[in-house]
Input
Amino acid sequence: MGILSLLIFLPIVGALVALATRKAEAAKWVALITSIVVFVVSLVVYSDFNAASNGYQLVEQVPWVITPGLYFTYFVGVDGMSMMLVLLTTFLMLVTILGTWNSINRSVPGFMALLMLLETGMLGVFCSLDLFLFYVMWEIILIPMYFIIGVWGGKRRIYSAVKFFIYTMAGSLIMLVAIIWLGIEAGHVTGHFTTDLTKLMAVSQKLPIDVQHYLFLAFALSFAIKVPIFPLHTWLPDAHVEAPTAGSVILAGVLLKMGTYGLIRFCLGLFPQASFDYSTLFSVLGVIGIIYGALVSMVQTDVKKLIAYSSVAHMGFIVLGIFSMTREGFQGALIQMINHGLSTGMLFMMFGMMYDRRHTREIKEYGGLAKMVPLYATFFGIAVFSSVGLPGLNGFIGEYLTMMGAYYSPVLNTWSYAVWSASGVILAAVYLLWMYQRFAFGLPAGAHPVSAHGAEHPVEQDTHGHHTPDLNWREIVAVVPIVAFMLWIGIQPMSFMKMSEKTMYQMSDDLLKMKQGGMTTQTSMNQNTSAQKAPMYTAVMPKTTSFTSK
Amino acid sequence: MTDLIPFIVLVPLAAFVINLFFGSKMKGSTAGWIATIAVFISFFITAGIFFEMMGRPAEERPIHFVMLDWIHVGRVQVNLAYLIDQLSIIFMLVITGVGAFIHLYSIAYMKGDRGFWRFFVYLNLFIVMMLQLVMADNYLLTFLGWEGVGLCSYLLIGFWYDEDKNNNAAKKAFIVNRIGDFGFLVAMGAMLYQFGSLNYLDVLGSGNNMVDGVRHAGLALGMGSGATIITIITLMLFLGCTGKSAQIPLYVWLPDAMAGPTPVSALIHAATMVTSGIFLVARSNILFALAPTTLAVVAAVGAVTAIFAAMIGIFQNDIKKVLAYSTVSQLGYMFLALGVGSFTAGVFHVVTHAFFKACLFLGSGAVILAMHHEQDMQKMGGLKKYLPITFGTFFIATLAIAGIPPFAGFFSKDEILWQAFSHGSMVLWLIGAIAALMTAFYMFRAVFLTFYGKERFDTHHHTPHEVDWKMWLPLVVLAILSTAGGFLGMPSVFGAGNVFEQWLEPVVGKGTEIAMTAGVAESPALEWALMGVSVAIALFGILLAMRFYKSRTTLAKQEAQLGAAYQLMHNKFYVDEIYDKGIVQPLYSISKNFLWQIIDVRVIDGIVNGLAKIAEIGSGSIRRIQTGIAQNYAVLIVVGLFVVVGYLVMF
Output
């Protein structure tokens, strides 16, 4: 058994042990220790991973279902893109368990086991190189998430859980059809039905273009629901609002990235021509998501709903970056996936900590937290500014690179997406700062200002006279590493982005080369525009544009 | 000395970190002293580098210093690196010099405040970020500083966060600035598209090549390929400047920003941060020079802002609001100078303005403290005898801003007016001159209302006291600079060369030369004459203020007799209300009532739930077939049989 398989299946062992303990406290410790071990194993994977070389690494392929005519293998491996997401998954799972230690009060062993099962599914999704295996892992995730929302959720948990399940299921069934179709087509070439990604790559692009379009759309629909891309996003606010904190963190932090990961790996990877053809549609939807998500987020009165809609906006940047297909766009989209995982994950986690203390999600019930719980308010503020995209913190790097990628993408061929998406930068400040102001500043809800100057006014208690304790050590230990990564990515992003540079550059260069090649057969007008925008896969930077040459 | 460059930033950064982690535990004023000493150290290093630079020939003065690598993805290749040249060193001296004295002042001003240490944490962070802004060797690092100072501004305006008024002002400042940042971002994208780089040396170097190209081809400015894109880049950069430097239409945040503690108003909202826009234009001078359209816009916006803000300033009664509008107005002058191509005059006014406006704000802080946090000038009066040092320094700074020779403001403002006349137009000069008249009037109105006349407060219970040395020392230093600072940039008609202009020549020379195409022939006589006119104007403004406010003080009640004009100016032309009704509320209402309630809840979820409903109803009715009664099934089987057989027979 290779190290990747160890990584993927270790959490299941933890899940079984957690179930076996039957005691809340013990199950938590099992989950915590498992997640620590898994995180360490993922670091070992990273140390074995060679960022300087291309293609899939640490590959394991063993026959799985082999019959005449069927050829499924257990096939896993990582490249720069999946490596990053694997590390995000193991890291977030660890801090989530630590940060939500006391949030769940009933059937704790079951909850912890489901979380562990979820981790296996997520790691499996990011490492699978066989579409059948990928599909199994993709579906495995639905089950624990369905129960996490449906059993441990809030008042409308059943509605939300079913909505989440059906939405996702509808998409993934169509994807299954596409996978089978592709497998059969591969059968015509290789002699047996196969879903091996590396073999499908050779097959998919030779299909008739309309078939490529259908298959692209089938995959894209499934991923678009997961991201979620406007207008397929309405399951997200409901799911987030009802899910317990750990569920929200993992949902926002990792699960949404499965959608964008799938878009790059499968939609763009298998059907580049169709991706070019639909790039306008997806970029438009991405930009709509950025603006629409921000505007709707602005008017929310429920903190979790507000953060949920902000995810729609943030994920829009990733979609835009992906369909720009430039180096900046790809690298920006990937780092934005990490950043969104950290910042939105932290926002949900920190809000969960406050929810455990105060049991309300309404913004108007809060206020004055900066004075009551200064440490909490400070960390929450850092997460807010990370989400706002303040330069120096992580959020900026991703948003900025995706925008720059979209700016001169030869695929999109217009500035307008980048310019529109830049307006999201304004709106992010509006809804997040307004929320933070009502949440942390001012006086506690219902309190009356005593002195005009206010500086000496004691507001350590809320209006009901309840004492709200500040962060405890366990919570500090959970949030400090996230903040450390936020600063680290903000100031030295290359120490992370080097990991995926080779992979993402290669993908972008291949796609753009193909796009440019395809251009020559098209109308001369298109040729002109592509010629003006210097191809970015050339290693040499165009330094200056000569003024007189044209 | 060059080896010490990192410490200019690292020392305040270290103080920031120390105070952040241990500040709350420190006793007395320790946190304040740590922060202050750090900025003084920064200032001394900067001064050392400055003198070293002076000793070198002009072309060897710029220093390029790489700290860390930063982002290297595709075309975006930028480092955390510094470009210290004649332009940035001036800003660095102002930031650390004026900044250090304001830190010192703050130790006394913020004494006893619950958030004393927190205040200095923010202030140090501000210094670090402001230095990034001006020292950066690329636009992206400047943008980091640009947003970083915005963050500090946000935190400091809302420093007393119990009051919603302060929080609203803070939020407004950040968001309005973000509208400007949108422009900055778009400009950076276009720049990357056009030049393939964000580094100043590459971009401005390409700009220089384009200038040569224009000359070589004998083209007029603003012609040829690439000209449109340069215009877009510069216009978008300027949109960023209107946010940070509070110009029309984005000036509205600055007056509200006075909600922050007064030292903040002095440092951030007068002396340093708000001049970032001038820095950016001066830094990119070659690009602006290539875009005559943008330059015209800059000059027009600057001139209109100068007079518009001055008009609002006339009838404000809050001493800090008067200073805030005067800052907006003075920034307008600076942009006017930049717009007519005189980048030197713009930067020079930044420097003198930093001296006298910081002095004015700190003076107003002393007054406010002495009056127990009363800011309404109608409740002051006669403070001259209680606060002699504050009065003296405030008076000197007011003379400087009014443009009375030989104080600093005279030289810089007169230079701007002269440039506006000789390289701009008669109209620009006229607007500037009228604004100067208003400035002299409303500033002396403030002086008379505050320091002269009878006390309009309860003198029995409360005698104002002159402030602590930590507060008056910075006032005196700034007053001296407001007096003497102007001689640095004495116009050449005075005989000696303009030292300031010669210093900046290597950075802005080419841009100035290109931008100032048309111009009145240099005529010393005309220049002397205009100088006389502007002094006369300033004196007239002062006399007018004296007439109304010195002895028999005119207050709001009498002013209100002016009718509509008074109402309009006193209420700031209702711009905030227009923005609120025209933009903020419609956006909120559309988002809530249409996007969320209709699109999201009704349409999308309606379809989703509708599909589920159809499935439910459909399966519900089909389910009824399964009745469990064998006879029904038998009937169905027979019917089915007939259908199948019938189908086979017929086709």
